[in-house]
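Worked Example 4.2. Consider the chain below.
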Amino acid sequence: MQLFEILDKTAEFWRPLLGFMDIHGNVVIEPQFLQNSRGLGRHFSDAGYALVQRPGEKHHMVINTLGETVLELPNDHQPVAFTPPDEHGIFGVMHQVDADNKDLWHLDGRDWVFQGETNYYAMRLDGCIAFEAYLSDAISGHYVFSNSGKINDKKGLMNHEGQTVLPPIYDAIYLSRKGFYATAMVIPPAN
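Applying the procedure from the previous section yields the following structure tokens:
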């Protein structure tokens, strides 16, 4: 069942509550979650999972199309790019080891930056780690990956078993939402 985002006003107008309705306009999941930082795009994967967070809670969780919690992410774990679990139950997570240690954070401009150890994984719905990689997008059991979360890091493509399909030599990889197509781009150096 395809679900669509609905928003409910709150006292903090810039942070509405998120819920979901079906194609007929029936509310399926009452607004109760924070709108993610992307605010746009698909919330539910084709497999029927979404990554959400409740107001006032640190943990993110995976829900199904009935609004039931399937998995609550462990402490110090966050979803990468809010890409929900796919048909293999795999999605990208970032684990900031000792993120509660205030000495490991420093202010860089207006943002707090974590200086401690950070690991990137493909996690399964049972909470187990499928393989190590920074996953930023997924479709049909294939994942865009890089070796870190740095914006200029080269990207590749791997399958749901963690095997490399395209090596991480591309500047950008875009996945089509209609059929399995990937566009890989190499940007030539500036002269």
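The longest strand covers residues 27-34. The chain has a mean pLDDT of 84. Compare this with Example 4.1 before moving on.
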